[in-house]
Amino acid sequence: MKVKSDFVTNSSSSSFVVLTKGSSTKGDLEKIFENLLGDNKLFPRLAKDISDSFYRAMNKRELGEWLDDYGLDSLTDECGYAEFEIIRENIAQYPNLYSGFFSNEDDVIEYLLCESSIDYKDDEVIIYKESGY
Fold it and tell me: Residue 78: which residues within 8 A CB-CB, separation 6 or more?
């Protein structure tokens, strides 16, 4: 029997999807998070830090590639992934798919994002992320 004797972590990660009608820039994300956070005098750079973390973690994906990663064949498959339902319901109107993940081990902002839920939609973008576990 093997016994692990060095450092053991209790790490967590959580994935997210971003759907857009056009290309998405770091500035676009920053405006979204500024609006969500409001006038944040305590942490004035928080919207920028969050948008930077999202932008770094985002990868442009083809729908088939994303489906393959989750072992799915098509949008008609049934599965329990909330991200899948968001994509299925909105990909026709928001054809640009980005995905990524956050880990609670990387930095403070990613830790907060990993543990948080985001369900945002406007005329140009959808951001969906369930909290980590």
Answer: none
Does residue 114 register a pLDDT over 80? yes
Closest CA to 24 of 116, 122, 101, 119: 122
The stretches of the chain forming alpha helices (DSSP H) are 26-37, 46-57, 63-69, 82-90, 108-115
Query: Is 99 strand, coil or helix?
Result: strand
Closest CA to 66 of 109, 18, 106: 18
> Each residue of 16-43: pLDDT tens digit?
999 999 887 888 999 999 998 888 777 8
pTM score: 0.84
Residues in contact with 119: Cβ distance below 8 Å, sequence separation at least 6, in sequence order: 127, 128, 129
> Is residue 80 a contact partner of residue 58, using CB atoms and an 8 Å limit?
no
